[in-house]
């Protein structure tokens, strides 16, 4: 299953919320992302069907190994690109917004170059 940008964003949000709170429910994702319950429900259903997420009996969301891999990749891209932009003088708010857009379209080779550049600073 080819994962669209929105699916990547959902996985990253589930990852961040789980790290922050120890667990994550659909309602938490909706509040965090500013999406309606039906939108989140549909997205979670697609992610579940694609093997990225499991829903436990108590309603908590759990990333599968595949979902975790995608989420960690997006999170790493987001944080490093934000860091680079901030170091270049962009405000934290703008850097975070721009990183959220860039993280989904940047090539692996360009991201690796950024990663290497930041590690040398």
Question: Can you describe this structure?
Answer:
The chain has 121 residues and is mostly helical. It folds into two domains: 5-66, Arc Repressor Mutant, subunit A; 70-120, Orthogonal Bundle (Diphtheria Toxin Repressor, domain 2). Helices cover 70% and strands 5% of the residues. It contains six helices and two strands; from the N terminus they run αααββααα. Strands 1-2 form a two-stranded antiparallel ribbon. Helix 1 (5-21) crosses helix 2, helix 1 (5-21) crosses helix 3 (37-49) and helix 4 (65-87) packs across helix 6 (108-120). The longest helix has 23 residues, at 65-87.
Spatial order of strands in the largest sheet: 1-2
Strand content: under 5%
Which architecture of the largest domain would the CATH scheme give at its second level? Orthogonal Bundle
Number of helical stretches of at least 4 residues? 6
Helix content: over 70%
What gap, in angstroms, lies between the N and C termini?
38 Å
- What is the total number of structural domains? 2
Spans with pLDDT under 50 lasting ≥5 residues? Answer: none
CATH superfamily assignment of the largest domain?
Winged helix-like DNA-binding domain superfamily/Winged helix DNA-binding domain
Q: How many β-strand stretches?
A: 2
| Structural class by helix and strand composition | mainly alpha
What fold name goes in the CATH topology slot of the largest domain? Arc Repressor Mutant, subunit A
Biggest beta-sheet profile: 2 strands, antiparallel
The CATH class of the largest domain turns out to be Mainly Alpha
